[in-house]
Amino acid sequence: MAKIGISILGAVLLVVALAAAGASSVLSVFSGSAGSQPSRTALTDIPPDYLTLYQQAATTCPGLDWSVPAAIGKVETDHGRSTLPGVHSAANAKGAKGPMQFLQPTFDAVTAKHPIPQQEAGAPSPYDPRDAIYTAVAYLCDSGARGGRNLHQAILTYNPAEWYVAKVLAQAQDYQNPSSLGGTTEPSPAARKAIDYAEGQLGLPYEWGGNGPTDGDAGFDCSGLTKAAYAAAGINLPRTAEEQFHADPRVPQGKPLAPGDLVFYGTPDEGIHHVGLYIGQGQMINAPNFGQKIKIAPYRHQGDDYAGATRPAQAAVRA
Fold it and tell me: What is the value of pTM for the model shown?
């Protein structure tokens, strides 16, 4: 991390999967004071006192669901259960401390700006779960999570690595009860394979007409990536974004997206010029353009020309 120490060793990419709201409200499932309800996984895995703290602290940042700081707590120190140096005393090799793994200067700067509600006597401590969790929420909020502005950037500020963003979002999905989100958060087997494949291409360069290293190319263009991702799941897609847009079952406008959906940009009449692979929580994996790398990014932004989504995995089920 740039400002917060890394405590994870040997971490691998996980599938990111969370059904989010439709085009009109990308992160509406993360707004409001109540947030999502804990899944059985969350109730089993998160110590009750930590779960209460994640839920209470998240209400101080409109637009941030409690599951996101909870996922960070899990990834960093297993909710304080880790016995590695720096979790309960001293610091790790990067200087990070406590269950949310703060560098002391960062912790001090955030708590100075955002005093912890009902703080007990004495200075806040990064080792204290309550102090650490409230401070982590404030840090995420200032970094882009407030109002659902840019959750991806907020997590990336916490730890500037795309694998970390993917892992946190995946864990957050596991902690949310699907019924509280108005749909399922679990990707189909085909969608999961496609997402796994796409995550494995993060960091490769955009290459116009590129079909990936297995085809002798350095990278992919947008539709080359989505075609290869679904080929890994045994589903054959057309080559171009335009053709893919017209090939699979359309997600009805206003209906929640599901992990594995393809999201398109352009207009049906004038042409589709871009496609990405939706991975949940308002995020997609895509090959953006010349000079850029395959990355995770919000699937909606102000002024975009989002045209709609399709669900290749649904076609596979029907077949």
Answer: 0.62
